[in-house]
## 1
Amino acid sequence: MDRLSPLLDRFRVSARLFHAGPLCGTTRFADDPGHGFLHVMRRGEMRVTHRPRSGAPRTLQVREPSLLFYPRPLAHDFHHALAEGCDFTCATLAFEGGARHPLVAALPPMVCLPLAALPGLSATLDLLFAETAAVRCGSRLLADRLFEVVLIQLLRWLLDHPQEVGLHAGLLQGLSDPRLARALTALHERPGDAWGLAGMAATAGMSRSAFAAAFRQTVGTTPAAYLADWRLTLAQARLREGQPVKKIASELGYANASALSRLFSQRLAASPRQWLAGTATSTRRQDAAPGAPGLTS
């Protein structure tokens, strides 16, 4: 069962290399809207700091080659020894839909893992380091794609080791449970089906009561509420693509456009068109804002 492809096919993630080489002293990374970070520390030691009440550890010591993953905007500082510094390869991540990307909401603010704990990533990382070690034709584009492969491999590892990174109740916890994963993957693949509690439970191979209780405890919401949120997220993506409300409603299993509009009103206090207009205004403001994701010393 492929638990990731139905999500990443509908809500893509793109990576962009922005640094390869040593970092010394203090390096600051801004919390740019709509962007996360993926850092690979190949050599050295450092101290990482975050702002209070950010959800990430206030201070973290990293003493071995490690991968640091920030799925959503979060300012962070790397503190290195002035003389020795650290060797890094870094990329920004753009999750389609921003904070509405299903995986972004399910992940902790940051994940730090030693590379020794991720043997399945070693071959991809070797290719990534080789491409960033010298300037060659297409190196930057290839490095971007390799970072995306690293991210998918990391997400796969997180699904198989949810307790090791302290995942809270949410989508990734649900996908880590073999029975719930069958139902969740079916919802992701066929959101327009006439799903009811009985059909979801049967897909999971559970009784209705056991499925409802396990789903609520593991995912943090009811099956019906999750399905409504998933359809809403899909509808928002389709609206951004320019598809008409009537067509979207039909694809998502709603009888008519009015039924989909009621979902928007209940969850967002706006009609689909009002929501789309507000999103366009917000995007223009972000595009006009100065600065870009990256690092400053």
## 2
Amino acid sequence: MSTTHTQQRRIHGRGTPDADWQAWPGLSAMPVTSAADLVPAHRRAVIVAPHPDDEILACGGLLQQLQDQGTQIVLLAVTDGDASHPGSALLSPLDLARLRPQETVAALTTLGVSPQIVRARIRDGQVSANLEQLHHLLLQLLRPDDVVFSTWRHDGHPDHEACGLAASLAARSCRARLIEMPVWSWHWAAPGDQRLPWRQARRLPLSDAVLKRKQQAIACFQTQLRDDASTGQPAILPPYVLGRLLHPYEIYFL
């Protein structure tokens, strides 16, 4: 991965306005998929979440649909998200390591989803440096015919990209199916951006009830939704970020 390409995926500023994405015909033209197509009967879904909240932002709708169809779900929580507020006098790394996993549990309860949760406890922001550890854990966890969902290998956040890489290598070794999920891509990319694998993209429709529960689940992540008065830093998930991720559909790269 070249430095130039990584810089092109920088997450800074307000990013691409959601209105630009909604005006792009490519979204509505994407082939539609379903939970049953993504995870057929008698197969497990393994969700690889770099940080607490990624499992809801990326696939909170799908999780509900998988629960409804009786799919066994395993959530691999790669980090506890303890580095989200550097220098904060309100939320120390110890506070975050305690609170953010609790927020995930509350969010999953709000969704009505009860996965098996496996915690890797890799340091937040250090997934790339611990790629071998994550890869080894995935090799132990995965079974043939599992369907593995991970953040996309080129999503822009280093932890997201490392999780995608580890998941792709482990899925290939274990003969599992890999499906990748864009999260921060909606921030730095632009409609029709040729750096994204649009031909592999599928759109999963969400009902009004499913979308409402996803929105309610996101509200559980209060550490990420509030400005930090001690540092002057804005919320990690301000409305303009959530606006790109809370639509009546989710996008998956097959």
## 3
Amino acid sequence: MVPFRKMHGLGNDFVVLDARQALPPITPVRAAALADRRFGVGCDQLILLEPGGEGADVFMRIRNPDGSEAGACGNATRCVAALLAGERDSDRVVVRTIAGDLPVERLRDGAGRDLWRADMGEARLDWRAVPLASAMDTLHLPLAAGGVADPAACSMGNPHATFFVPALDALELATIGPALEHDPIFPERANIGFAQVLDRAHLRLAVWERGAGLTLACGSGACAALVNAARRGLTDRRATVSLPGGDLLIEWREDGHVLMTGPAATAFTGTLDLEAYPR
């Protein structure tokens, strides 16, 4: 039997397995089975903790519910940082991902509760970095569906497109999200954000996540939404992003790095028989 931990950041939930010790192979098929909410444990992403190597406390590998690998996940980064900080009795952790190293530090809110501020790295604005299928202005993509149009794109270690909409609740996100995720303009598919600007320091956001669908929160999507809103002059470079699961504070620094601050929580722990899942 293998221990696991179920964690979440604002309802964006993860099954965390410690692969720093020997585990049976976690293939894409097995990852998808574990993520299934009826036949597995159920999660938005499966997280594997692997040895970090020099300069990092841990390597975080991310599997989507369809078994594909993701490059970045802001909410999972905070959860893993909280877990590692507890192991090391430290307020600072470096989480390594395939998209780069993400330093995270513990803060506390006015009630003394832990918050985690992650440096998600630089927002990448060139069309090659997103990536897009051909050269174009990432501030205005020629893309439309279901009553939304003219998104801005950037990479936060994974591809994002943000549509700015007047009324978020009027959209059929479950219908238009899949079509936009798989549009040929995105050779590696994309996370699709739908943002409503409330004022220069506040956005509402819903995200159709690549390989996962609608989730209660998307940390990298919140970062991308703030960057794209600020690029268009719709907000300042620091704003609260309200997602269905709660609020994140996002800051796009002048050096290009994006800081994300929010909570992390453990829902429960348990054990599972990995060999009972297909491989």
